[in-house]
Amino acid sequence: MKISEQTFTIGKLAKDAGVGVETVRYYQRRGLLAEPPAVSGYRRYDTLHLERLNFIKRAQGVGFTLEEIAELMTLNDTRDHRLARNLASEKIRSIETRIEQLAKVANALRHLVRECECGGQEMPCPIIRMALTP
Amino acid sequence: MKISEQTFTIGKLAKDAGVGVETVRYYQRRGLLAEPPAVSGYRRYDTLHLERLNFIKRAQGVGFTLEEIAELMTLNDTRDHRLARNLASEKIRSIETRIEQLAKVANALRHLVRECECGGQEMPCPIIRMALTP
DNA sequence: CTAAACTCCGTACCTTGGTACGTAGTCAAG
DNA sequence: CTTGACTACGTACCAAGGTACGGAGTTTAG
Lengths: 134, 134
Fold this sequence. Notes:
Two copies of one chain form a homodimer.
Chain A: H1 10-17, H2 21-29, H3 47-61, H4 66-78, H5 81-118, H6 126-129
The structure holds a DNA duplex.
C-alpha cells in the first residue's frame, strides 16, 4: 500500500527541495538520485525523491562531499551503522586537522602584521619579505 | 655589478624550487613570474626567479591565492606596507570565519556519532537519518 | 654523429559542484 | 489551436591551480 501517490515533475521537485532543475539532473548523472519511470517522456518524482534531496542537502551542510554522501546512502541500504560512524569520525578528524592548520596560518599572519606595524617604512615590509621561512 | 651570473634552464629552476616545469610556465602565463630573455631559443633564469618562486610557495603556504600573491608583489614594487597589512588582516579574518564554520560542523558530527553509539541496531542510524534537521 | 633529454609553444584536460545553452518534444491555458 | 511554460538530453562552461600532450627545435653525453 502506498501512503502517498503524489508525483511531481522535475521542476516542482527542484523547487520543493530548494535546488535547481539542473542540480537534480546532475545528481542523477552522479548516481545520487534514482531516475524515476517516465510517463510519456516526462519523469514523475515522488516524496522519496524529495527526501533524498533533503538528505543530500543536510549531509552537504555538515561537510560531506557528494562522493561521501553516495557512500553514506549505500550504507543506508545495508543498514551498517558502524561504517557510517567510521565515516563520520574520519570526517571529524579531518576537520580538526584542517582547523589546526588554519590556526597556524592565522597565527603566522598575525605575527607578520604586528612586525609590520612596528617597523617603519624604511624597512622592507615583513609581510612581503614573508620572513617566516618555514 | 651582478653578484651572481648563474643562470639555469626552466627544468633546473623548477627542480630547485620544487615545482613542475609546467607550473613555472603557468605562473608566467598568469603574470606571476617574468619571462627572462632567451639565449638561443632557451630561456635563462637566475636566482631572482628562484626567489620569486620561493616567495610564491611561502605565500601560498600561508593561504594566499595566486591572485592575492600577484597583488602582494605589485605592492612590493610600490613599497606600500599599509595595503599589504590590510590584505593580511583580511586574510586573517576570513581564516577565523572558516575555523568557526568548521568547528560547528565538527560539533554537529560529534553529536551524531554519540547518538549513534547510544542507540541499538534496531533504530535507524542517526548519522544516516541526519536527524539534525536544521 | 646520433640518440636521449631537454625546451618551446599552444592547447586540452583534471577536480568539485554545479550552471548555462541549444534543440526538440510536450503539456496547459486561453 | 496556438502560445508560452515546461521537460529531456547532450554538451559546454565557471573557478583555481595546475597537469598532460603533441610536434618541432636544441643541447649534450656517449
